[in-house]
Sequence to fold (399 residues):
Amino acid sequence: MIRAYKFLMRPTVGQQGALAEMLRDHCSLYSGALQERRDAHRHVSKTTVRYGQQSAQLKDIRAFDPECQGRWSFSSQQATLRRLDKAFAAFFRRVKAGDKPGYPRFRSGKRFDTVDFPRDGDGCRWDATPHDPVTRVRLQGVGHVRVHQHRPVVGKVKTISVKREGRRWYVILTADQARPEPLEPTGSVIGIDMGIAHFLADSHGEFVPNPRHGQKAATALETAQQALSRCKRGSKRRRKAVQVVAHLHRKVRRQRLDHAHKTALAYVRGNDFIAHEDLKIRNMSKAPTPKADREQSGIFLPNGAAAKAGLNRSIADAGWGVFLQVLTAKAECAGRVVMAVDPRNTSRRCPECGHTAKENRPTQEKFHCQACGHHAHADTVGALNVLRAGLARRDTRQG
Fold:
């Protein structure tokens, strides 16, 4: 199996400049290749330029510009061209499917932040010797850069990527390793119901509080963004203000990811089978359709957009998608089973008698069955129904 590792790099001042130049030159290569494809499609009878043709030109490009393009790894430049080719492949796939196309765009130096090395030892080398307390990664054109390796890398390193996040530099490794031994069975099964008031409720009657990292940082973000809006474009003060805003957003993202990892790990360790709702988060967070006034041209009726915007913000802040991805990955490594089920009517169906009605849930938190009188928390009822649906689906697959 393939596992990724992300470590903080500690480059010197000179190495920081070389890393920035590496990003700039790869960004220039990406933009030039994109321009070539656009020109070929526009002017040469809509000819399509592919990756193989552009990769074959790299030798001449490196010979023509040895100071910028010639000093970097040939394989990393091929990876940059391959990234552009994937962007075009995704564009044509969306066109064929009838989705919003999203034509590949030019990247500025501020938005191009990653350089990939497809193979360890080709333009890069992960140097982590057991007897040396200092870990380094060697990058062609940059040198040996110190790395803060906070955990050991298990398996053989396959690919290496260098990424810039604000003022920090990270190295991302992918390692091929043997599948770990599964955890000991616990005999426990559980269903979880994602929510806003609580991050999730499980079928055991337990609740995980919603940390609301984005809401807690809203005041600081608002202040930082107001300061950014008052800065003149292109000024040094504006660049500093942008870094402050980006730092706050990165902190919220790390907090959300940390919470997802810790919560998922606790459920994976304690349960053999985990069922959750198959949530369509993108559809749930869509803006409401505008309602045009038929009597007055150019006038729109209230459609609850303000309230829906607040709900969408809360859904994004909860980070359901990140948590479910982490949960699935950890369960696969631990030999656990995670199953998604249809979420329809899970909080309206009585777990005692099976009666399903909208009136069974009079409020957001209360569940009161109109048939048998069963009382419970609505989220707990939803988790119980999710668990039952998951077990039924598992038994059907096994049968």
User: Anything to note?
Assistant: The first strand starts at residue 2 and ends at 10. The chain has two domains: 2-176, 189-398. DSSP finds eleven helices and 16 strands in the chain. The chain has a mean pLDDT of 92.
